[in-house]
Amino acid sequence: MTPRRMGVVRRRLTGTEAISRVKRSLTSRRADLTGFAHPVFSLPAVVYVFIGFGAPVGILVVYSFWPTVGAQVLINHWTLSNYALFFTDSIYWQTLLTSFLITTIAATLSVATSFPFAFFVAMRVPPRRRALWIVAAILPFSVSYLIRVFAWLTLFGQAGILNTTLIDLNIIRTPLGIFNYGVPAMIITFVYLLFPLSFLASYVAIERLDPSILTAAGDLGARPWQNLGRIIVPLAKTGLFAGFALCFISMMGDYVTPSFVGGSSGTLFISFIVTKFGFSAQWGLGSALAFILLAAMLGLLFLLRKAVGPVGSAGEYSRHYVPHKARSLRAYAAVLLAFLYVPIFIVVLFAFNSSGLIGFPISGFTLHWFETVFNDPLLLSALYTSLDVVVWALPFSLALGVLAAVYLARARGRWRAFSIGTLAVPLCLPPVMLGLGIIVGLYALGVTRGFWTIVAAHVLLILPTATFIILVRLEGLDTNLEHAALDLGARPRQVLLRVIAPQAVPGILAAALIGFAVSIDEFLVTYLVTGTTVTLPLYIYSSVRYAMSPELNALSSIMLTASFVLCGIAALILWGWGNLRWTSWRRVLAAPRGTITD
Amino acid sequence: MSAKRIVPPEGGSAEDVAARLTVPGEPVLRCVGLRKTYRGEGAFTLGPGDDGLSLDVGRGELFALVGPSGCGKTTTLGIVGGFIRPDAGAVIIEGTDMTQRPPYARPTNTVFQSYALFPHMSVGANVAFGLAMEGMERRNRRARVEEALELVGLAGFGRRRVSELSGGQQQRAAIARALVKEPALLLLDEPMGSLDAQLRKQMQNELVRLKTSTQTTFVHVTHDQEEACAIADRMGVMKAGRLVQVGTPITLYRNPATSYVAGFLDVGTVIRGRNDRHGSLVDVSTEDIAVRAEIQSSTPAGPLAAVIPAGKLRIRPIGDAQDGMQASGTISRVVFTGANVVTYVRVGTKLELKAVLSADQFGNPGTALGAGVSVALAWDPKDVLIVADRDDDAAQDGSGEAPLDWH
After folding, report:
1. Chain B neighbors of A594, CB-CB under 8 A
2. N or C, which terminus of chain A has less Cβ within 10 Å?
């Protein structure tokens, strides 16, 4: 017996500490009886992400140290000139600072506006109705990202709906600058676009709070605002920080919004990077700028993390609910929901307007724009391409993801940590890095860009998300269920098929739906890695650039309907899973009363 | 992987082992020399002594393994069920060595603490699962499932979803699922843990009824010594990875082997102190009290502790006839438990003696017993139990690893 161990033995444990140790030790002590904890299961996914993401980013690093002469990368000449240029040419570092300022304001606003809403849903809505509120708040975001930006595009601008309506109502004479394309428009659009991220992050943190804590604080004399400042925010601060960080990263990597509603003043740093890989073809400089952006972002988030302080344990999840009126919160929540739905409503409204211009007044009802959508060969071919990409990318991602999740859910140790780390990297970095890395990587390998490069990139984007969604589901399962199955005579293969798989179905389904949504909506990476192939988002992007036409409103309305239908099906399947099972139907159809079926 | 060390059942490696193997006829379960060591945080060894952990369970017995959290009782059950591979020793079920067999190849079935009912199947499908795994045909399963559900009082519940059952019903379903396979050995891992007191009593009776009607051998793990005493034919008290004492509840209660067992079973007041032997008598004394008792031939060597059974301690207000008074003290606490009154008497500075009186005895008019009253204490020296003065921590004998102090 070593002295160190003696020390451990002698130290007294608190009750909860002892219990958590016992729980932990019992799970980790169970031997792997099924053989599914074999690292080979996660190998395909890890290798795919490691090579597919690591290699391109590695090449990007190398290129960032090579100078560009003309439009060609000079090989094998190491230099820091690309990085030096960032500091010497003031336009770069000034734009970076401006970008940070704008995104910080937008992320803060996003968290601030969604926090009361999240608090309302998590604390003041009865548990049974919470899902309804969450779905209502998230549903507008099932619409394509580009179309959501497009909605704001029609609202803002000199001749945008906001300005023209105000002029028509004789409230203003000349268009208001604040409603023109520019920084304010961009911030408003960002706050709108990022609502689900900040809302869900806050919601998850607040939902864990036990409402009786607030009652206790009130009992001890805390006023509601003291409750907020001293109890809720400190306990939910990790959620707030997570929301801020997610918004911040998404905005810094967003190329579409600034280029649409940013106007001339709203150029963000990302645009420089993308153009360096576009027509100006200065890959070395572009790579260096990308890494400077990444370093600056991570540095800022790291400092912020330090400032926020250590992760406070937000408490065990409790389903307690203290009924509460909360009239003003309810009113706020209603107004916010309206804010979320108005742009969507505008989009649909003008799909049926007979005028070719998007703006008030409504001139008449027509289905003409829907006709043009279905008669547009370019659009249909883009749609077909998008579906084709999904058909290849999704099953591949799901297969690798399920295998990896089966392993990750039951394994312990270094390879598990390494697998999770590798799979998490693509989620933490802006997608633009992935896109740029892939272009450079493909160029270095001499691979032509096209359909298959898009599929490969989409697998990289879907795989980590899919794996983690399925993992969450599998980890939630009681290991004793597997033990019970083995105990009742099931072989490992039967355990997988009859116990694990049926219960993992909701997770796989959710992963498939989200993967589908990601793939069908993905713009930036596709834009970068495509050759001449046009997917639906690329088509929408180019038509919006070209001219805003009600045809896009019609297309958006169709996609909106499709998203709603898909969400509805998903909800039905997930919530009514038990009732949709084949055995249930068989029973309903065939069983006379009083019989027991299996 | 450490080398397996299987002690042959006949091997008289320790008399201690032989003493435990007191089951008439061929035992259904025979565990010999089990050892399992967990390293790292919360290091723990099951069977820390040289001989490991050995145990026999006879046919049709309800055997309870009882002990505090972390004493290794669930680990033992896991080894028997095949969920945990022991580092050493053997599990022999109905004469066959099962140590290396996976759970699905053992004639054991387990009722898990969390019940572990498959949430995606109906109650009937849960019960039928084990039969389906045997390859039994669907129509044959049906009758067996119905029978098993009826046995546990869930007739007609087969089509319900698991989530539609109450906690008690889920437990019944879990028992039916395990029993339907007609296992040689039914293992129950703290199955009453999440039931309320009322339901727990009811399920305890139910379990005894099931054992009798199905003639199945049960191994029941619990931390509740009252539950173990109430239902077990025999019980084994565990501490820190070792089986301290095995016997019928009444034997254990009347003859606890160590001060730990006496304390754990709450036999009475355990007095640990200096030993002074006078021939066949021993005085166990602390600064507060001295207790004299007779040394029996079965009394172990080494330090001894005295136990005054709570039911054998008499108390009277001071001032009455003082004959036979052995000590005096002050009543510190009186607890009514319905039929009985538990009275705690403080003697000296540290000692508190426990006495269980019938309500009649206590409520005698004229006896003004209550907190704060000075009382005389008396007991018959023949009633005092002499036990080995041991905590039964593995650390004491120096061999094996020290377990965590869970308290």
Report:
1. 156
2. N
